[in-house]
Design brief:
Layout lengths: L16 H11 L4 E2 L2 H4 L16 E3 L4 H14 L3 E4 L18 E4 L6 E5 L4 E5 L4 H10 L2 E2 L12 H6 L7 H4 L2 H4 E7 L5 E4 L13 H4 L8 E8 L1 E2 L3 E9 L2 H15 L3 E8 H10 L13 E9 L6 H14 L3 E6 L3 H12 L1 H6 L4 E2 L2 E3 L5 H15 L4 E7 L4 E7 L7 H4 L1 H14 L15 H7 L2 H14 L14
Parallel strand pairs: 2-4, 3-4
Antiparallel strand pairs: 1-2, 5-6, 6-10, 7-11, 8-9, 8-10, 12-14, 12-15, 13-14, 13-18, 16-19, 17-19, 18-19
Bound molecules: flavin-adenine dinucleotide.
Length: 484
């Protein structure tokens, strides 16, 4: 079975000529792609492991066209796969192998409808790239804090659908906490206008939260009201070599104590991950003479008038040295150095991709368990596959590790032969420690069954009831997140 086959055997009709004509009438020629070369970019995911086929790729321009397209497909019984920037890491935006589904690309819904600096809100359409949304906020003197390595390509709609995290969660929370209102096209084509911009709204169920993190299985997000924050033009950034993972966690406590809400990012990078970055990402250079097993990237941020962040950072690092938690530290002295340090963290995904096949795990654990988890699981994985490379990095301030694996240098593909066994070890240990097997990437098809196995029947029943109520015919991104 390929990962995109519908394991329940649900069969939806292929696109008929009548449906195609109706879609063309509504969306126009540029809104309906059917030629193999035109649809190809929408059929494979960023990791290159998920491939599908489609009857067509639909590219509506606005909410009314999304509504039309969804209604026409629903009436014809054709399944739809919403897609934003196609940077998701769990196969959620890839159609199945049948060729009977359509991809519904939101990429042309790119309007910034409003930026309201006084209210600290911004209303943007789903296809706006995250980087563009951040720039629009900055142009109005505000900060939209969601930030991640894929921000040039991923979209606000995809960020909402995956409840994306990234490097600023420590201070600002995940996407769920950054959304005030939503506009959604429901699976029958009706538009729900929930574009509310108020911070307090206790009028019953918080319906918007259902669509956040639903990975396009309950409806299509077309626009959102997002929260904005004061900018943090002053920054202090350092690259640290903590003694070990426990020490990295202890340094986080020191930073929290001294910097409080000015601590904006705290990221972990293993030596293996750094080695890949240094080998593949131009412009990177190890700031230390000696190798260390672990590194942490810390950043403090504040308004221009804030007291000297460098002083707070230096005092924190001084305490960490005194308590023997820290072996070395390099503090950025300007923008170029700051960017160079960030490149060593944000280049890991691309660098690992250059090293051949990988298995990606995106786990969270109680933060005090991270060191024991890394030691224990590392030992077990090395026993299963000698030479395996553990490309561990991530948002350690949130207890979130990207516990990624690459195969041995001389036989990278050996990894994939043992995929199930290796992943079982990781998931078993995460479950034993009360963690989660998907911290921020979602489930898609890759983690759907593993997540179901870890949840009780009661929770699954609730999830199926929600899906059944909103999408009774099961045409909205079928086979993703949960089996119905
Ligand atoms: C280099 C790199 C770094 C990354 N770093 C991070 C990180 O730090 N944190 C993090 O959380 N993720 C990260 N990701 C993963 C990815 O970028 C996020 O999941 C992102 O939110 C996906 O957005 P997208 O627009 O690309 O969505 P897509 O990949 O197109 O879709 C993802 C899911 O959302 C659904 N969807 C998309 N748009 C809509 C919509 N408008 N309405 C309804 N459903 C929709 C799709 O059906 C699919 O299920 C990274 C990825 C890469 C390649």
């Amino acid at each position: 079975m390929t990962p995109t086959d519908d394991p329940r055997g649900h069969v939806t009709p292929a696109l008929t000529d009548g449906l195609l004509r109706a879609l063309l009438d509504s969306l126009g020629r540029s809104g309906v792609l059917t030629e193999p070369d035109d649809v190809a970019p929408y059929l494979t995911d960023w990791t290159g492991t998920h491939h599908g086929r489609v009857g067509a790729v639909l590219r509506p321009r606005d909410t009314a066209q999304v509504s039309d397209a969804v209604r026409l497909c629903a009436e014809a019984g054709v399944a739809m796969v919403p897609q934003g920037g196609n940077t998701g890491l769990c196969g959620g935006a890839t159609p199945d192998a049948s060729g009977r589904q359509v991809v519904l690309s939101l990429g042309r819904l790119r309007r910034i409808r409003e930026v309201d600096p006084a209210a600290d809100t911004m209303t943007v359409e789903a296809g706006v790239p995250l980087a563009t949304a951040r720039e629009a906020a900055a142009a109005a003197g505000r900060l939209f804090p969601l930030s991640m390595g894929s921000e040039g390509s991923c979209t606000i709609g995809g960020n909402i659908a995956t409840n994306a995290g990234g490097t600023a969660v420590l201070r600002y929370g995940m996407m769920r906490e950054l959304v005030l209102g939503l506009e959604v096209v429901l699976p029958d084509g009706r538009v729900w206008d929930g574009l509310r911009a108020v911070r307090k709204d206790n009028t019953g169920y918080d319906v918007k939260q259902l669509f956040i993190g639903a990975e396009g299985t309950l409806g299509v997000v077309t626009a959102a009201v997002l929260r904005l924050f004061p900018q943090t033009p002053c920054r202090a950034t350092a690259w640290l070599a903590p003694r070990d993972v426990d020490a990295a966690v202890a340094i986080l406590s020191v930073l929290r104590e001294r910097a409080a809400e000015r601590l904006t990012a705290y990221e972990l990078v293993s030596r293996q991950a750094l080695d890949m970055v240094l080998a593949h990402v131009p412009g990177t250079r190890d700031p230390f003479r000696e190798n260390h097993p672990w590194y942490a990237l810390v950043e403090l941020g504040g308004p221009a008038a804030a007291e000297d962040l460098d002083t707070v950072l230096e005092a924190s690092l001084g305490e960490a040295f005194e308590r023997d938690l820290l072996v070395d530290a390099a503090v950025a002295t300007g923008t170029a150095q700051r960017e160079a340090l960030w490149l060593m963290r944000e280049g890991v995904s691309e660098a690992q991709r250059s090293e051949g096949p990988s298995i990606k795990h995106d786990v969270t654990l109680p933060i005090g368990d991270l060191a024991a988890f890394v030691a224990d699981v590392g030992t077990r994985l090395r026993a299963l596959l000698p030479g395996i490379r553990l490309v561990t990095y991530g948002h350690v301030g949130d207890g979130n590790l990207h516990y990624n694996l690459s195969g041995p240098v001389d036989d990278p593909s050996a990894l994939l032969v043992l995929r199930d066994e290796l992943t079982a070890v990781v998931y078993e240990r995460v479950a034993q420690r009360g963690g989660s097997i998907s911290a921020e990437h979602g489930l898609g098809t890759t983690k759907r069954d593993a997540a179901a196995a870890l949840k009780g029947e009661v929770e699954l029943d609730v999830a199926r009831a929600v899906k059944g109520a909103l999408d009774p015919t099961g045409l909205m991104n079928p086979g993703k997140v949960l089996l119905t």
